[in-house]
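Many introductory courses stop at the sequence. We go one step further.
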Amino acid sequence: MVLKNKLFLIVFFCYLIFANISISSQIFDYETEVFVNKLLNQIKEVNKFKKDIKISVIKDDDPNAFVFTENRMIISSGLIEQAPDYVSLLAVLAHEVGHLHYFHLEKRENSLEQLSKLNLLTNIAAITGGILANDPQILAGSIAGQANINNFYLSFSREQEREADLFSIGTLQKLKLPTNSVIELLKILEQNALSKGYDEEYQKFSTHPIFRERYQMIDNNTLNEKFKYNENIQNEFNFIKAKFLGFNDKSSLGALKNDHKIYFESINNSNLGNLQSSLEKINFLIKKYPEYVFLLETKGDILRSHGFISESLEFYKIVLRKYPNNHYIKYRLFLDTNITKLNKNKKNNFFENNLDLLIQFPTNKYIINKFIKLAIILDKEFWIDFFNIIHQSNEFKKQEFKEKLFALSEKTNDKKLKKIIYEYLKI
């Protein structure tokens, strides 16, 4: 059925508003991923949920969150910006884990089959690097279309949504976390819905319980006991929220105060071209929080955005030493390194040490092009063949592409190349 109006799917904890998702782009920010995974680990532990969940963050002003095949979860920048605190964000994540826990995805097999054909993640535009490193060169592709995602969510039943809601509320109870911020966020979202013309009567056409029902659900399931609200986690969340608001030039500071407000102003000043004021503020925070190395990454991003590339690299290297799995910093260092200044031995080490980037960013043409140059210089015959295959292919899922990779894997004895080929065959 073709709907004349876009359906607003009101979701209690994952509040999906699809207004601009068709042009959303992915944000690669390691600090945010570390933080979200920390919350997910709490959810998984108290619910004895063993499966790994892979998250992606997209740039979208509307608060969105959803899960799809292979336990992948997408959350929007708007969700981070509008969530009053870490508990309300955790509740959103718990709702989505609830869908996975109760096998709701498997129960929607037909919709999942359609969604898999959209190749969602590989079609999301990538802003690769820190959240401030908005390099237009790296933008490529777009997220799945509005209509396709709406059709996907129409297959959720209202009962499944209630089940996920109760899973989320139960998670808050197990963690002894308060629900007041969740109610606060619900009210914000309800006002947003009403301002767009989605009144309660219209909401009844959604597969999700209306706001009134969900307020009641919280009241009926909230226990009166001593809460374990973590101020340190909230402080981390406030810094991330300030970074997102600053990066997206949001003039409304909301609940940001004190050092978090200074952080926002540092990023916002940089966006407005006032580098001196920006650096003064970020240096103040770095001195006050010497263990919070992500501030150094932000300083690197600020310097980079003003053309101070070599200076920014020094700060990135410090962060990478503490977080060696920060592939987004590694990506920038890889692209910015001048390989002509390296001797042959260092070129080979540089090649070997950055192969994991091919797994993290398998379709990134800038990475592939640089590896091709290195492979030719180092006379790596089988690697040259490999890069020629993936460089010339327009569609990694084609049988011809897979056959060529498999044949190359049979010819080479290079274990690292075999591993990379295996990863590409899984795409």
